[in-house]
Design goal:
The structure is a single chain. The chain is α+β, with helices and mostly antiparallel strands. It folds into two domains: 284 residues, FAD/NAD(P)-binding domain (3-Layer(bba) Sandwich); 149 residues, Elongation Factor Tu (Ef-tu), domain 3 (Beta Barrel), CATH 2.40.30. It contains 13 helices and 17 strands. A six-stranded mixed sheet has the order 6-2-1-7-17-16, covered by helices on one side. A hairpin with a 2-residue loop joins strand 16 and strand 17. Helix 2 packs parallel to helix 13. The radius of gyration is 22 Å and the shape is globular. The relative contact order is 0.17. Belongs to the MnmG family. TrmFO subfamily. Its EC number is 2.1.1.74. This is Methylenetetrahydrofolate--tRNA-(uracil-5-)-methyltransferase TrmFO. Its cofactor is FAD. Keywords: Cytoplasm, FAD, Flavoprotein, Methyltransferase, NAD, NADP, Transferase, tRNA processing.
């Protein structure tokens, strides 16, 4: 086997993967098309360029899942976190960075590493030999996207997110919502109760439509525009087509009986569907949207049963090339049909700078171990990285798979000791458990 690891893409994931593999003693060639081939979002040829926010979000490693990811990356000697800490800016409990200094320092560190070499050209085909990691991100070039399409099929690669919001199940008011599939369809009790239903009377529905129409919306950026498919119209577009459109679409009330009030027929019903195998996350069916995040939270909490909802992800539709990873990748992040190829970062269906870098870290370590003839198991799924990897490699529902930030809803539930735990205690228990298992996983490689 060739002893060199090829990495395509010098963003967060590719940069971290290169660093991890090189630190493990494996020679790396990092292929990056910029600046010779640009994108509408990037402005430099530096590695790990931040194209949107300059924030890595919460740095709380005891109460926040993304803060736990920070902790795990630091414990693994992550380059991205080292440089983020070096160029941190005041941001309360968050980790924000001087983006130009950050990406310049990542570039400098990578170029100074004796085991990393560089090739500044576009890779437009999937190689048949060698060990490769593709970390080309949401702005994968058209030529490479076509090559991935040819290998995986048209249903396995999306060019736009059509994202419905996802709610933490334990924040839904079940005194108002109930489980039932429309017309009780299904052969098993689980199938007959596959949906969670939130009813609205006429006044609630009319107020909901008014709020959707009045809400602030984002616009497509240059290079992002695309026609909507009728199957994933934003709810505000449906509302603009007529006030009754939504209640004849994703909010239709037919075939449902509210056990809390069986005599009263709902005027409209919002349905949620389980989004992960654990049943800790539910997505709001058919609620893709271009409303701004603050407006989404306000509008969606008008839905009976969701007044106190906590959102694992808010909705959106935007340019973002990503794989249907649960159908394509194994737990080593390899393409099942071409196991010499791994994928990492946002193209695998994780969302955010930190999540992308984290999946690069795991891919780099897994690939390096393989090249060295070693067997490295994936990270324990009770860790933040293990939970993300499990989500993209099989836990997520393939039919509704969309990019996801790390959140505690992806973690296996933890047993409460001494009765029901409050959220603060529960999150601390999640992070304590994760840290112990992560340290063990790292120690086994040393």
């Amino acid at each position: 086997m060739e002893k060199t690891l090829h990495i395509v893409g010098g963003g967060m994931a590719g940069s971290e993967a290169a660093w991890q593999a090189a630190e493990a003693g494996v020679p790396v060639i990092l292929h990056e098309m910029r600046p010779h081939v640009g994108t509408f979002a990037h402005h430099t040829g530096n590695y790990a360029e931040m194209v949107c926010s300059n924030s890595f979000r919460s740095d709380d490693d005891e109460q926040n899942a993304v803060g736990l990811l920070h902790w795990e990356m630091r414990a693994a000697g992550g380059l991205i976190m080292e440089m983020a800490d070096r160029h941190a800016l005041p941001a309360g409990g968050a980790l924000a960075v001087d983006r130009d200094a950050f990406s310049a320092s990542v570039t400098e560190k990578l170029r100074a590493h004796p085991l990393i070499s560089f090739e500044d050209r576009e890779i437009s085909q999937l190689p048949t030999d060698g060990t490769w990691i593709f970390a080309t991100g949401p702005l994968t070039s058209d030529a490479l996207a076509q090559a991935i399409l040819a290998e995986t099929g048209t249903e396995a690669l999306a060019f736009f997110d059509a994202i419905a919001p996802i709610v933490h199940f334990d924040t839904i008011d079940l005194s108002k919502a109930w489980f039932q599939s429309r017309y009780d369809k299904g052969d098993t009790e689980e199938q007959r109760k596959a949906y969670l239903n939130c009813p609205m009377d006429r006044d609630q529905y009319e107020a909901f439509i008014d709020a959707i129409l009045a809400a602030d919306k984002t616009e497509f950026r240059e290079g992002e525009t695309a026609g909507y498919f009728d199957g994933c119209l934003p709810i505000e577009v449906m509302a603009e087509r007529g006030r009754e459109t939504l209640r004849h679409g994703p909010m239709k009330p037919v075939g449902l009986t509210n056990p809390h009030n069986p005599e009263q027929k709902a005027y409209a019903v919002v349905q949620l569907r389980r989004d992960n195998a654990l049943g800790t996350l539910f997505n709001i069916v058919g609620f893709q949207t271009k409303m701004k995040y603050g407006a989404q939270t306000e509008v969606f909490r008008m839905i009976p049963g969701l007044e106190n909802a906590s959102f694992a992800r808010l909705g959106g539709i935007h340019r973002n090339t990503f794989l249907n990873s649960p159908t394509l990748l194994d737990d080593q992040m390899r393409l099942k049909s071409r196991p010499n190829l791994r994928f990492a970062g946002q193209i695998t269906g994780v969302e955010g700078y930190v999540e992308s870098a984290a999946m690069g870290l795991v891919a780099g370590r897994l690939a390096a171990a393989e090249i060295k003839g070693q067997t490295l198991p994936p990270p324990p799924r009770v860790t933040a990285m293990g939970a993300l990897l499990a989500h993209i490699s099989g836990d997520a529902e393939a039919k509704t798979f969309q990019p996801m930030n790390v959140n505690f809803g992806l973690f296996p539930p933890i047993e409460a000791k001494g009765g029901r735990r409050g959220r603060k205690d529960r999150y601390k228990a999640y992070t304590d458990r994760a840290k112990t298992e992560w340290q063990s996983w790292i120690a086994a490689q040393e």
